Amino acid sequence: MEILVCVRRVPDTSENEIQLNAAGNDIERDDLVYSVNEPDNYAVEEALQIAAKVGGNVTVVTVGGEDDEEVLRREMAMGANQGALISDGAFNGSDGKGIATVLKAFVQKGKYDLVLTGIQAEDGGAQVGGMLAALLDYPFASLVNSISVLDGGKLKVSREIEGGNKEMSEIDLPCVLSIQTGINEPRYVGMRGIRQVASVEIPTYNASELGVAPATVGEAGSKVKRVDYFVPALGKGAEMLQGDREEIIAKLIELMKAKGGMN
Amino acid sequence: MARIFAYIVHKAGVVDDSAAELAAAAKKIDSAASPVAIVTGWGAELDVVCESLRASYGEVWKVANEALSYPNAELVRQALVKVLPSGSVVLVPHAHFGMDLSPGLSIKLNAAFVSDVLGVEGVEGASLKLVRQEFGGQVSAHVRCDTSSGAVLNLRPGAFKPQESAPINGVIVDKSAEIGALSAKRRYLETVVAEAGDVDITKHAVLVSVGRGIQEKDNIAIAQELAEMLGAAVSCSRPVVDAKWLPKSRQVGSSGQTVKPKIYMACGMSGSFQHLAGIKGNPFIIAINKNPKAPIFQVADVGIVADILEFLPELTSKIRETRQVSA
Questions:
Q1: B237 and B283 both lie in a single domain
Q2: Pick from B273, B253, B263, B261: which is nearest to B301 by CA?
Q3: Concatenated DSSP letters for A130-187?
Q4: ipTM here
């Protein structure tokens, strides 16, 4: 099975406090720690497990700039067979549909049975997978938390729905699935693995190579534009307990007694 | 402003709470709007749903088809594309079904799409200024959406407060004949109900709930000791389940359990909206997080800036001490 996984490099929210910049129009991007978007990493692991089971190749692709190559290498160190970087100034400022349009062009250059994305990026809208599927006229399932390969060009997938329940469906290949975290346990990538793929060449594709009309992507093609970032004026917020540790614990115990949490 | 449609989620003949929230959001987009409820389904259940919507929507578009008995997003999309006028603004709740339906629907309608909308801050002609959150709720963003060729907006459950209004006795318009034959490349098989866990966290008055800040599986014991001291149960947020440190049955949130404790101790978690959606009954929320900017402090009653790996054991031993003295 030929599997394509769309990945992104994002600021890692478990490593960073995301703050506004001095001008208040963007987040402070200096000194941010970036990593592969977490659900995308689960998607790559899932692709590797499927390929190991039924045979095939895993390609990882990202739309971005030179800096984004590092996440492709990381996923190749995990075991992806090849990477591809889609990069063009014309793509800057693309909305979800713009990114999906670019990815559609890339998918059509190859021959993939299965396209995976992560369910959502840290700064994204859980949208590119579903849009890509609709552009390609492939079937789609979101929030996928298990996949098994059936005979006859089909998969059985489960979607995570309310209350921890699972919605089981059968889906024809080729299809697009957006992967929920927790579907598997992504393998560890050590420095040694990263070094092994450090010099592998990663092909780059621009708008004209993909046959993407610049007016359909980027700022020009976007109906949805982020204006600015802000921190909303809070409601009351929590009463923050102050003092040294002992005082804080004493206050907390009093509060818990008052609220009936301690007998 | 274009006509506004609200996609109604329903189950077993009961309208989801989101229906009233979508009506409220429609009024924020256009105070003069008379939003149309659009309902897909089949049989007597669908009729009950349409009837009950007449009180809150001036028009209810009913789309009945046996293939829509179960809301398969691919089939629902096909039906909506045939029925919706071009240029419509379509509101959908941002939950598992909306995430499945809306991105592809926006493509097929050639409409703009914005997901997980929390607020509407202004309308200038066909341009909407909307509010979203990014980076796990650490910052918010204003987004401009050009609705001139229509829009699909996924709205965060709970973000738009339903308005009280007199029943309006709306009309039901049957659109079923317009959709023609439906066929899907994804076919619904069954729903597998979650297994019950060893501990029923929905039955406890006090929950010690841990997030990513617990850092590793072995540290769960720290929370367990505190919970035992309090007669509480240990629950958790999604990353803890993803990491397989606790079973799914312990997860609080929209994709996990809905709990109604008296006291909820949110330990080392950011407080994503999906997690908060699982906490009902207005409990006293105690948040402990080493990041003073963690969004959980916005919703908690009491906040403590501390590393839970140090704080929880100290709290446990202090409570133990207090009890030994009084005993």
A1: yes
A2: B263
A3: HHHHHHHT--EEEEEEEEEEETTTEEEEEEE-GGG-EEEEEEESSEEEEEPTTSS-PP
A4: 0.94
CA distance A146 to chain B (A): 12
CA-nearest of B199, B190, B239 to B216 is: B239
Domain range enclosing B19: 4-178
pLDDT per residue as tens digits for the range B269-318: 999 989 999 999 999 999 999 998 888 999 999 999 999 999 999 999 99
Split into its structural domains, chain B has a count of: 2
Q: What is the pLDDT of residues B159-174, one digit of tens each?
A: 999 988 888 899 999 9
| Domain membership flag for residue B183 | no
Other beta carbons less than 10 A from residue B62's beta carbon: 20
Nearest to B286 among A127, A140, A252 (CB): A252
- The set of residues, in sequence order, having a beta carbon less than 8 Å from that of A221 and lying 6+ positions away, is A94, A95, A97, A98, A101, A214, A215
Q: Write out the two tokens for B7.
A: 């996609």
DSSP B232: -
Nearest to B115 by CA among B129, B128, B136, B130: B130
Q: Which residues of chain A have pLDDT under 50?
A: none
> Token pair of A23, please?
């001008």
- Nearest chain A residue to B315 by CA: give it: A249
CATH architecture of A2-221: 3-Layer(aba) Sandwich (3.40)
- The secondary structure of A177-217, three-state, reads EEECCCCCCCCCCCHHHHHHCCCCCCCEECHHHHCCCHHHC
The band of B253, judged by pLDDT with boundaries at 50, 70 and 90, is very high
Question: How far is B251 from B244, CA to CA, in rounded Å?
Answer: 11
- Claim to verify: residue B166 and residue B206 sit in the same structural domain: no
Contact partners, residue B300, CB within 8 Å, separation at least 6: A237, A238, B266, B271, B285, B286, B287
Question: Where residue B229 sits, what CATH number does that domain have?
Answer: 3.40.50.1220
Model pTM score: 0.93
Question: Token digits for A6?
Answer: 């769309």
Letter for the amino acid at A7? V
What secondary structure does DSSP assign to B171-222, as a single string?
A: EEEE-GGGS-----SEEEEEEEPPPP-SS-GGG-SEEEEE-GGG-SGGGHHH
CB contact under 8 A, B96 and A143: yes
CB contact under 8 A, A161 and B191: yes
Residues of A in contact with B298 (CB under 8 A): 234-235, 237-238
**Same domain for B256 and B132?**
no
Residues 8 to 47 of B: which have CB under 8 A from any A CB?
none
pLDDT-derived band at B327, boundaries 50, 70, 90: low
Q: What is the DSSP string of B113-175?
A: EEEEE-EEEEEETTEEEEEEEEGGGTEEEEEEEE-TT-EEEEE-TTSSPPPP------EEEE-
